[in-house]
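#struct-pred

JT: dropping the chains for the assembly here, can someone run the whole complex?
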Amino acid sequence: MKGAHMSRRLLMASCALIYFFLMLPLLVVFPISLSSAPYMQFPPPGFSWQWYERYLDDPQWIDATWRSLYIGAATSVFALALGVPLAFALVRGKFFGRTLLDRVALAPIIVPHIIFAVAVYGLFAKLKLIGTWYGLVVGHTVLALPFVVLVIAAGLRDFDRSLEQAAEGLGASRWQTLRRVTLPLLRPSLVSAGLLAFISSFDEVVVALFLAGANMTLPKKMFDNIMMEIDPTIAAVSVIQILLVSVVLVLIGRFGRGLSGSAR
Amino acid sequence: MASSEGSAELSIEGVGKRFGDVVALDRVSLKVAQGELLTILGPSGSGKTTLLKVVAGFETPDGGTVKVGGTDISALPPAKRDIGMVFQNYALFPHLSVKTNVAFPLEIRNVAKPEIDRRVSEALAMVELVGYEARLPRQLSGGQQQRVALARAIVFNPRLLLLDEPFGALDRKLRETMQLEVRRLQRRLGLTTIFITHDQEEALVLSDRIAVMNKGTIQQIATTTEIYEHPANDFVADFVGESNIFHGTISASGTVALDGGGSVTVASDKPAGAKVGVLMRPERFGTAGTNLFNGEVIESVYLGTSFKLRLAVEGGRELLVRQPARGALPAAGSRVTVGIEPDAIHVF
Amino acid sequence: MFSNRSGFWPAVPALILLFAFFLFPVVRMLGFSVEAGTLDWYAKALGEGLYIRVLWNTFEIALLVTLFCLLLGYPLGFLMATTTPFWATMGFIFVLLPLWTSVLVRTYAWMVLLGRNGVFNRTLMEAGITTDPIPLLHNFTGVLIGMVHVLLPYMVLPIYGAVRKVDPAIPAAAAGLGASNWRIFWRIWLPLTLNGVFAGCVLVFILSLGFYITPALLGGGRVIMIAVLIEQQVREALNWPFAAALSAVLLVATFLVYTLAQRFSQPEQAR
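RK: done, full complex below.
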């Protein structure tokens, strides 16, 4: 069994390297963001909070962050409001064209991002929706919808329907059963789906590039910044974003439920 | 609290249901009197669960009606039928406490809070689970969960109680305890009850009457004694209890000429020449009697209180015999003589 | 919503959104490509050497990215699926964290890492291994590295799923029968997880085709993938019909790959 041990060790060693590759970019931004040098320099000569201060002092950055936050929240709300009923219809409905509907619901994932972004830009330019926050919410909701559907549908498939039958037998109407039994028990899936929708909107760049106009979201501002200069402020913003994602992941781990089964 | 005032008689008339090519229910009719416990007994696929679902409202029959207390409820959705149900997998709401589970039907009906508390306490007392109000279902054992399900099903004074193989997941001893508890509860409340099971022993313990079902039809409805002692056909005779079933033609002199040779003397008033089935219960054999069988022991089992013997007798037949355990267990290969009286043989 | 009813109505609001703000805009835009009823723009997109090179580049990069993701992703997915729950969770964190971190953050980090004065080059030069900075940014290599990094999780997750589904008794039996590790991998693990491998490859390939951010930033204008080209045509050249024609080509390519994938993926069945 020496051979098995060796292969396993080899596997673990290579994986360690690959994990390092995966995490490297995330790790690198931390020291850069704390650099005391006035420009991009590695290794950083000293420790300083200056880039975080730059970020917090700049109304443009704060505005952009704030905008991304409420657009993300709105996207989450709408994606859930539309996606949960859609998931119900897809999992439990029996009607003509259900497979087609399934394809349409997942289409925003399959159609390349850039095509959607450009198309929506063309339409919204006509409708004068460029630069509005609700225009972006619409675009982001379309993109988030498939994720919500996937997560909720997975939760519904594992759902014990005899509980709903029991509720009905005890006198509950459809709505009452939904409100008191189904949705509370679906809560982990709802939490995951909502957070997923939020993060997908918060991070979204391509559509924002086209639709945000002068009213920038955080990713758009970052993008512009990167194109113009590599300012370590971006590193600070990146760190903040990584921390935000970590918090969301922890929340999902505690309160949510993923696509796989219960054991995670 | 729950009493016989709320319960009613159930009348199922000509209910049929098919799923594609499969006939699940073939024009089934039966009546359950107010306060009676009827068991529907049958193997899987016999249609008993489908019948239950029709009564509860989860399946719409293709034809026929369901009436409770004289009112036709066939068109009502399950929520409006006022029927208490207990499922095999308990179906307790995992996110609600025992108390909230039991209170659920009362909250739905907008009963006042103090009244809810009172009735929930009463229901839990009836199933002997006082003190468990704050627990969650997953903190309870199988038997306890089933009792909560029972409490929840009766707390709102339903007119009918339906139980769908509720004890299937419990172990034997627990099952027996629960059977007696259900019986006791049902009698105390005078609640019209239908109990579904495939376990014939369970049916015999619990019921006032048994309806034996097979392939979507009711084979026989009768009291437990009738079903056991005088089954109406092969299926019922074989399904309930152990049996020795043979077929033959009855003659004028009170004997049945068995197909394949031999005859037995019976006490029956069936007309001569009729083709009949003959049932002999293993425990009715003695060492002597009007009808004698001499055979070789194929298999013998010691069961503590009795011996169970499988004999090869004349005509190439096998006989299953139970005898009180006295003396030594007859060994395989030994010859034994058993006898049975005519009035212990049931002719159908 | 529960029993035998049609249950279609809940889907309506979402459908309206998808039709009005997804299908309609996309179809409308694609319609621009057929200006004045001619297919000239398609001729340009598929005919002119410059643009053929872009298409070819895109295709090439997508293929290479998929290959590297497979080589790096399989070991990862395999290890995660066959290790203790604790390490599996750790593994998940290290895969999900990059996955959910903004593409922008990750791409920016690579710019920091790969630039002439970037982390990588500086470390090598300080250590005396090289004297001149290696050009890793604003070129093919940079884009490749960046895209592999971003898309690796999409390869790992399906493979993880596929490895999990394999009954561990099977390779154990093979080992008990004397098979070497290499043989076990080649004859047992690989065939049984082929579905996951396939799914991962298709996913990564399709995503690579339409990728914008990473090639735009790490390519520095020198590596033009089709998505970058489309953006340029819309924003700078204001050439909607051409952008639409390019989009149509990209869309067709994506659908083709997707449909072929569906056709060839084996149904999950007991073997």
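JT: nice. Residues 242-347 of chain B form a domain with the OB fold (Dihydrolipoamide Acetyltransferase, E2P) fold (CATH 2.40.50.140). The mean pLDDT of chain B is 89.
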